Amino acid sequence: MQRHIVVLGAGYAGANAAARLAKRLHPADTRITLVNADAEFVERVRLHQLATGQDLPPRTLTDVFAGTGVRVRIARVTGIDADSRTVQVVDADGPDEITYDTLVYALGSSASGVTEHAYDIAGKGSALRLRNRLAELTAGDAVLVVGGGLTGIEAVTEIAEARPDLAVSLVARGGLGDWLGEKARQHLRTAFDRLGITVLAHTDVETVEPGRVVTAGGRSIPARVTVWTAGFAVHPLAAATTLEVSGTGQIVVDDTMRSVSHPDVYAVGDAALAHGVHGIPLRMSCASGVPSAHHAADAIAARLTGRPIPPNRIGYNAQCMSLGRRDGILQWVTPDDRPKPSAITGRSAARAKELICRAAAWSMSHPTSMLPARRRRISPASTPTQVPV
After folding, report:
1. Which cofactors, if any, are listed as required (predicted)?
2. Cβ atoms of 322 and 328 closer than 8 Å
3. Least enclosed by CB within 10 Å: which of 24, 214, 303, 304?
Protein backbone atom coordinates (compact mmCIF):
# COMPACT_ATOMS: atom_id res chain seq x y z
CA MET A 1 0.00 0.00 0.00
CA GLN A 2 1.48 3.33 -1.05
CA ARG A 3 1.78 6.11 1.48
CA HIS A 4 0.45 9.44 0.21
CA ILE A 5 2.52 12.51 1.10
CA VAL A 6 0.89 15.83 0.24
CA VAL A 7 2.87 19.07 0.16
CA LEU A 8 0.86 22.30 0.25
CA GLY A 9 2.59 25.25 -1.39
CA ALA A 10 5.35 25.36 -4.00
CA GLY A 11 7.44 28.26 -2.85
CA TYR A 12 11.08 27.76 -1.89
CA ALA A 13 10.16 25.65 1.15
CA GLY A 14 7.39 23.51 -0.35
CA ALA A 15 9.14 22.84 -3.66
CA ASN A 16 12.36 21.85 -1.91
CA ALA A 17 10.49 19.58 0.51
CA ALA A 18 8.74 17.75 -2.33
CA ALA A 19 11.96 17.38 -4.33
CA ARG A 20 13.95 16.06 -1.37
CA LEU A 21 11.23 13.57 -0.44
CA ALA A 22 11.31 12.26 -4.01
CA LYS A 23 15.06 11.72 -3.64
CA ARG A 24 14.75 9.95 -0.29
CA LEU A 25 11.77 7.60 -0.73
CA HIS A 26 11.15 4.77 -3.17
CA PRO A 27 8.29 5.51 -5.61
CA ALA A 28 6.92 1.99 -5.19
CA ASP A 29 6.02 2.86 -1.59
CA THR A 30 5.07 6.54 -1.80
CA ARG A 31 3.02 9.00 -3.82
CA ILE A 32 4.02 12.65 -3.51
CA THR A 33 1.53 15.34 -4.51
CA LEU A 34 2.55 18.99 -4.63
CA VAL A 35 -0.44 21.36 -4.47
CA ASN A 36 -0.06 24.98 -5.54
CA ALA A 37 -2.48 27.67 -6.64
CA ASP A 38 -0.13 29.08 -9.29
CA ALA A 39 1.16 27.02 -12.20
CA GLU A 40 4.59 28.68 -11.97
CA PHE A 41 7.26 28.84 -9.32
CA VAL A 42 7.60 32.44 -8.15
CA GLU A 43 11.12 33.65 -7.38
CA ARG A 44 9.99 35.71 -4.42
CA VAL A 45 13.43 37.05 -3.54
CA ARG A 46 13.46 38.87 -6.90
CA LEU A 47 10.01 40.48 -6.80
CA HIS A 48 11.52 43.92 -6.17
CA GLN A 49 13.22 43.50 -9.54
CA LEU A 50 9.96 42.50 -11.21
CA ALA A 51 8.28 45.56 -9.73
CA THR A 52 10.83 47.89 -11.32
CA GLY A 53 10.42 46.59 -14.86
CA GLN A 54 12.79 43.61 -15.01
CA ASP A 55 11.48 40.30 -16.30
CA LEU A 56 11.94 36.95 -14.57
CA PRO A 57 12.21 33.65 -16.44
CA PRO A 58 9.06 31.53 -16.15
CA ARG A 59 9.39 28.18 -14.37
CA THR A 60 6.32 26.01 -14.87
CA LEU A 61 5.94 23.54 -12.02
CA THR A 62 4.85 20.64 -14.21
CA ASP A 63 8.02 21.09 -16.27
CA VAL A 64 10.21 21.45 -13.20
CA PHE A 65 8.98 18.23 -11.61
CA ALA A 66 8.60 16.17 -14.80
CA GLY A 67 10.25 12.81 -14.31
CA THR A 68 10.80 13.24 -10.55
CA GLY A 69 7.83 11.21 -9.39
CA VAL A 70 6.22 14.30 -7.85
CA ARG A 71 2.68 14.90 -9.08
CA VAL A 72 1.85 18.59 -9.42
CA ARG A 73 -1.74 19.59 -8.70
CA ILE A 74 -2.71 23.17 -9.61
CA ALA A 75 -5.40 24.00 -7.09
CA ARG A 76 -6.21 26.47 -4.33
CA VAL A 77 -6.34 25.06 -0.81
CA THR A 78 -9.56 26.06 0.94
CA GLY A 79 -9.50 23.93 4.07
CA ILE A 80 -7.76 21.23 6.10
CA ASP A 81 -9.27 18.64 8.41
CA ALA A 82 -6.22 17.58 10.36
CA ASP A 83 -8.16 14.98 12.33
CA SER A 84 -9.51 13.13 9.29
CA ARG A 85 -6.35 13.81 7.23
CA THR A 86 -8.07 15.54 4.34
CA VAL A 87 -7.40 18.72 2.38
CA GLN A 88 -10.14 20.64 0.59
CA VAL A 89 -9.11 22.27 -2.69
CA VAL A 90 -10.66 24.04 -5.66
CA ASP A 91 -9.20 23.59 -9.14
CA ALA A 92 -10.38 24.17 -12.70
CA ASP A 93 -12.90 21.34 -12.31
CA GLY A 94 -14.35 22.66 -9.06
CA PRO A 95 -14.13 21.60 -5.40
CA ASP A 96 -12.33 18.39 -4.46
CA GLU A 97 -10.85 16.62 -1.46
CA ILE A 98 -7.38 15.08 -1.10
CA THR A 99 -6.64 12.42 1.50
CA TYR A 100 -3.12 12.24 2.92
CA ASP A 101 -1.06 10.06 5.22
CA THR A 102 1.61 12.72 5.76
CA LEU A 103 1.09 16.42 5.16
CA VAL A 104 3.79 19.06 4.64
CA TYR A 105 2.29 22.51 5.16
CA ALA A 106 4.23 25.21 3.28
CA LEU A 107 1.66 27.85 2.39
CA GLY A 108 4.02 30.66 3.34
CA SER A 109 3.18 34.26 4.09
CA SER A 110 1.93 37.47 2.56
CA ALA A 111 2.31 41.15 3.36
CA SER A 112 0.60 42.19 6.59
CA GLY A 113 -1.07 45.49 7.35
CA VAL A 114 -1.43 46.53 3.69
CA THR A 115 -4.25 49.00 3.13
CA GLU A 116 -6.22 49.65 -0.03
CA HIS A 117 -4.03 52.67 -0.76
CA ALA A 118 -0.68 50.87 -0.60
CA TYR A 119 1.18 48.42 -2.83
CA ASP A 120 3.28 45.45 -1.79
CA ILE A 121 5.76 43.02 -3.37
CA ALA A 122 4.91 39.88 -1.41
CA GLY A 123 3.50 38.11 -4.48
CA LYS A 124 3.88 38.14 -8.24
CA GLY A 125 0.50 39.74 -8.83
CA SER A 126 1.09 42.56 -6.36
CA ALA A 127 4.59 43.18 -7.75
CA LEU A 128 3.15 43.51 -11.24
CA ARG A 129 0.51 45.96 -9.99
CA LEU A 130 3.27 48.10 -8.50
CA ARG A 131 5.25 47.81 -11.73
CA ASN A 132 2.31 49.18 -13.73
CA ARG A 133 1.76 52.01 -11.23
CA LEU A 134 5.43 53.05 -11.23
CA ALA A 135 5.37 53.19 -15.03
CA GLU A 136 2.62 55.82 -14.79
CA LEU A 137 4.65 58.19 -12.61
CA THR A 138 6.41 61.26 -13.96
CA ALA A 139 9.58 63.04 -12.88
CA GLY A 140 9.47 64.40 -9.37
CA ASP A 141 6.63 62.15 -8.16
CA ALA A 142 7.09 60.87 -4.62
CA VAL A 143 7.42 57.16 -3.83
CA LEU A 144 7.45 56.15 -0.18
CA VAL A 145 8.52 52.69 1.02
CA VAL A 146 7.29 51.79 4.51
CA GLY A 147 9.46 49.28 6.36
CA GLY A 148 13.18 49.27 7.10
CA GLY A 149 13.88 45.52 6.91
CA LEU A 150 15.57 43.59 4.14
CA THR A 151 12.52 43.73 1.87
CA GLY A 152 12.07 47.46 2.29
CA ILE A 153 15.75 48.22 1.72
CA GLU A 154 15.92 46.10 -1.42
CA ALA A 155 12.69 47.60 -2.76
CA VAL A 156 13.60 51.23 -2.15
CA THR A 157 17.11 50.95 -3.59
CA GLU A 158 15.83 49.08 -6.66
CA ILE A 159 13.20 51.76 -7.29
CA ALA A 160 15.66 54.61 -6.76
CA GLU A 161 18.19 53.08 -9.14
CA ALA A 162 15.63 52.24 -11.84
CA ARG A 163 13.86 55.61 -11.57
CA PRO A 164 16.36 58.32 -10.52
CA ASP A 165 13.81 60.91 -11.66
CA LEU A 166 11.50 60.08 -8.75
CA ALA A 167 11.63 61.39 -5.18
CA VAL A 168 12.14 58.16 -3.24
CA SER A 169 11.93 57.87 0.55
CA LEU A 170 12.02 55.15 3.20
CA VAL A 171 10.16 55.17 6.51
CA ALA A 172 11.69 52.90 9.17
CA ARG A 173 10.42 52.21 12.66
CA GLY A 174 14.00 51.93 13.90
CA GLY A 175 17.29 53.21 12.56
CA LEU A 176 18.52 52.48 9.06
CA GLY A 177 19.98 48.96 9.11
CA ASP A 178 20.44 49.09 12.86
CA TRP A 179 20.65 45.28 13.06
CA LEU A 180 23.79 45.27 10.88
CA GLY A 181 27.43 45.58 11.90
CA GLU A 182 29.09 48.99 11.72
CA LYS A 183 30.83 48.39 8.39
CA ALA A 184 27.59 47.30 6.73
CA ARG A 185 25.60 50.18 8.27
CA GLN A 186 28.11 52.71 6.99
CA HIS A 187 27.97 51.25 3.49
CA LEU A 188 24.18 51.27 3.58
CA ARG A 189 24.12 54.97 4.50
CA THR A 190 26.57 55.71 1.69
CA ALA A 191 24.43 53.79 -0.81
CA PHE A 192 21.29 55.66 0.22
CA ASP A 193 23.07 58.98 -0.17
CA ARG A 194 24.37 57.96 -3.61
CA LEU A 195 20.88 56.97 -4.74
CA GLY A 196 19.28 60.09 -3.30
CA ILE A 197 16.96 58.22 -0.94
CA THR A 198 15.49 60.21 1.94
CA VAL A 199 15.30 58.28 5.22
CA LEU A 200 12.73 58.94 7.92
CA ALA A 201 14.04 56.82 10.79
CA HIS A 202 12.31 56.07 14.09
CA THR A 203 8.95 56.82 12.51
CA ASP A 204 5.69 54.86 12.77
CA VAL A 205 3.10 55.10 10.01
CA GLU A 206 -0.43 55.33 11.40
CA THR A 207 -2.49 55.41 8.20
CA VAL A 208 -2.05 55.30 4.43
CA GLU A 209 -4.31 57.61 2.49
CA PRO A 210 -4.56 58.58 -1.18
CA GLY A 211 -1.51 60.73 -1.90
CA ARG A 212 0.02 60.59 1.56
CA VAL A 213 0.78 58.69 4.75
CA VAL A 214 0.17 59.98 8.27
CA THR A 215 2.62 59.11 11.03
CA ALA A 216 1.79 58.22 14.61
CA GLY A 217 2.89 61.74 15.53
CA GLY A 218 0.40 63.29 13.12
CA ARG A 219 2.90 64.24 10.42
CA SER A 220 1.65 64.09 6.84
CA ILE A 221 4.13 62.77 4.26
CA PRO A 222 3.20 63.18 0.56
CA ALA A 223 3.41 60.02 -1.58
CA ARG A 224 1.98 59.39 -5.02
CA VAL A 225 2.79 55.72 -4.40
CA THR A 226 3.20 53.99 -1.04
CA VAL A 227 4.92 50.59 -0.95
CA TRP A 228 4.21 48.58 2.19
CA THR A 229 6.94 46.18 3.36
CA ALA A 230 6.40 46.46 7.12
CA GLY A 231 5.97 42.82 8.00
CA PHE A 232 4.50 39.54 6.83
CA ALA A 233 1.60 37.39 8.02
CA VAL A 234 1.12 33.68 7.46
CA HIS A 235 -1.76 32.17 5.53
CA PRO A 236 -4.81 32.10 7.87
CA LEU A 237 -5.75 28.53 6.98
CA ALA A 238 -3.82 26.77 9.75
CA ALA A 239 -5.44 28.87 12.47
CA ALA A 240 -8.86 27.65 11.30
CA THR A 241 -7.91 24.00 11.93
CA THR A 242 -7.34 21.90 15.06
CA LEU A 243 -3.59 22.21 14.57
CA GLU A 244 -1.81 23.96 17.41
CA VAL A 245 -0.74 27.40 16.22
CA SER A 246 1.02 30.36 17.79
CA GLY A 247 -0.39 33.83 18.23
CA THR A 248 0.98 34.65 14.79
CA GLY A 249 -0.94 31.77 13.20
CA GLN A 250 2.20 29.72 12.59
CA ILE A 251 2.04 25.97 13.20
CA VAL A 252 3.94 25.04 16.36
CA VAL A 253 6.48 22.34 15.50
CA ASP A 254 9.10 20.30 17.30
CA ASP A 255 12.79 19.98 16.50
CA THR A 256 12.01 17.92 13.38
CA MET A 257 9.44 20.39 11.94
CA ARG A 258 6.59 18.10 13.00
CA SER A 259 3.38 19.53 14.46
CA VAL A 260 3.26 19.18 18.24
CA SER A 261 -0.47 18.42 18.07
CA HIS A 262 -0.73 16.26 14.92
CA PRO A 263 2.29 14.01 14.28
CA ASP A 264 1.25 13.32 10.68
CA VAL A 265 1.64 17.03 9.83
CA TYR A 266 4.90 18.91 9.23
CA ALA A 267 5.23 22.66 8.68
CA VAL A 268 8.14 24.39 6.95
CA GLY A 269 9.20 27.87 5.93
CA ASP A 270 7.25 30.92 7.05
CA ALA A 271 4.28 28.75 8.06
CA ALA A 272 6.16 27.15 10.97
CA LEU A 273 7.01 28.43 14.43
CA ALA A 274 10.32 26.60 14.46
CA HIS A 275 13.72 26.67 16.07
CA GLY A 276 17.13 25.96 14.67
CA VAL A 277 20.50 25.11 16.15
CA HIS A 278 20.91 26.11 19.82
CA GLY A 279 17.14 26.67 20.00
CA ILE A 280 17.16 29.93 18.02
CA PRO A 281 13.78 30.96 16.57
CA LEU A 282 13.84 30.95 12.78
CA ARG A 283 12.84 34.17 11.05
CA MET A 284 10.68 34.31 7.95
CA SER A 285 13.17 34.09 5.08
CA CYS A 286 14.42 31.93 2.25
CA ALA A 287 17.50 31.32 4.40
CA SER A 288 15.27 29.57 6.95
CA GLY A 289 12.68 28.09 4.60
CA VAL A 290 14.91 25.89 2.47
CA PRO A 291 16.88 24.32 5.38
CA SER A 292 13.65 23.69 7.30
CA ALA A 293 12.19 21.97 4.23
CA HIS A 294 15.26 19.77 3.87
CA HIS A 295 15.20 18.89 7.57
CA ALA A 296 11.49 18.02 7.53
CA ALA A 297 11.91 15.83 4.43
CA ASP A 298 14.85 14.03 5.99
CA ALA A 299 12.91 13.48 9.23
CA ILE A 300 9.89 12.12 7.35
CA ALA A 301 12.06 9.77 5.31
CA ALA A 302 13.95 8.61 8.40
CA ARG A 303 10.78 7.81 10.32
CA LEU A 304 9.22 6.00 7.38
CA THR A 305 12.30 3.91 6.62
CA GLY A 306 13.25 3.15 10.21
CA ARG A 307 16.48 5.13 10.18
CA PRO A 308 17.92 7.60 12.70
CA ILE A 309 16.53 11.12 12.47
CA PRO A 310 19.28 13.62 11.63
CA PRO A 311 19.89 16.40 14.18
CA ASN A 312 18.56 19.89 13.63
CA ARG A 313 21.52 21.96 12.44
CA ILE A 314 19.62 24.88 10.94
CA GLY A 315 21.55 28.08 11.49
CA TYR A 316 22.61 31.22 9.68
CA ASN A 317 25.81 32.22 7.94
CA ALA A 318 25.02 35.58 6.39
CA GLN A 319 22.37 38.14 5.56
CA CYS A 320 22.47 39.26 1.94
CA MET A 321 20.81 42.27 0.41
CA SER A 322 20.96 43.91 -2.97
CA LEU A 323 21.16 47.70 -3.23
CA GLY A 324 20.15 47.93 -6.86
CA ARG A 325 21.86 45.84 -9.54
CA ARG A 326 25.46 46.89 -8.92
CA ASP A 327 25.72 47.22 -5.16
CA GLY A 328 24.98 45.11 -2.14
CA ILE A 329 25.84 43.96 1.37
CA LEU A 330 26.72 40.51 2.62
CA GLN A 331 26.71 40.69 6.41
CA TRP A 332 28.34 37.69 8.08
CA VAL A 333 26.35 36.48 11.10
CA THR A 334 26.60 33.89 13.85
CA PRO A 335 24.45 30.73 13.65
CA ASP A 336 21.89 32.50 15.87
CA ASP A 337 21.73 35.44 13.42
CA ARG A 338 23.78 38.04 15.30
CA PRO A 339 26.00 40.25 13.12
CA LYS A 340 29.74 39.75 13.05
CA PRO A 341 32.08 42.71 12.52
CA SER A 342 32.98 41.53 9.02
CA ALA A 343 30.92 42.18 5.89
CA ILE A 344 31.38 42.25 2.12
CA THR A 345 30.06 45.36 0.37
CA GLY A 346 29.77 46.89 -3.08
CA ARG A 347 29.95 45.01 -6.37
CA SER A 348 31.42 41.90 -4.75
CA ALA A 349 28.41 41.65 -2.45
CA ALA A 350 26.06 42.27 -5.38
CA ARG A 351 27.66 39.40 -7.29
CA ALA A 352 27.46 37.15 -4.21
CA LYS A 353 23.76 37.94 -3.75
CA GLU A 354 23.12 37.23 -7.42
CA LEU A 355 24.89 33.87 -7.19
CA ILE A 356 22.84 32.96 -4.11
CA CYS A 357 19.58 33.85 -5.86
CA ARG A 358 20.57 31.91 -8.96
CA ALA A 359 21.60 28.89 -6.91
CA ALA A 360 18.29 28.87 -5.03
CA ALA A 361 16.31 29.05 -8.27
CA TRP A 362 18.52 26.47 -10.00
CA SER A 363 18.20 23.97 -7.17
CA MET A 364 14.41 24.31 -7.25
CA SER A 365 14.31 24.09 -11.06
CA HIS A 366 16.55 20.98 -11.19
CA PRO A 367 15.26 18.83 -8.32
CA THR A 368 16.70 15.61 -9.72
CA SER A 369 20.19 17.12 -9.87
CA MET A 370 20.45 17.83 -6.17
CA LEU A 371 21.83 15.14 -3.86
CA PRO A 372 22.47 11.54 -4.84
CA ALA A 373 19.24 9.56 -5.09
CA ARG A 374 18.79 7.29 -2.07
CA ARG A 375 15.26 6.09 -2.59
CA ARG A 376 14.78 3.77 0.35
CA ARG A 377 11.87 1.43 0.95
CA ILE A 378 9.38 2.15 3.69
CA SER A 379 9.59 -0.01 6.80
CA PRO A 380 6.59 -2.33 7.29
CA ALA A 381 6.21 -0.91 10.80
CA SER A 382 5.46 2.51 9.30
CA THR A 383 2.29 1.69 7.38
CA PRO A 384 -0.41 4.39 7.61
CA THR A 385 -2.67 2.28 9.82
CA GLN A 386 0.02 1.49 12.37
CA VAL A 387 2.35 4.44 12.93
CA PRO A 388 1.07 7.87 11.84
CA VAL A 389 4.04 10.04 10.85
Report:
1. FAD
2. yes
3. 214
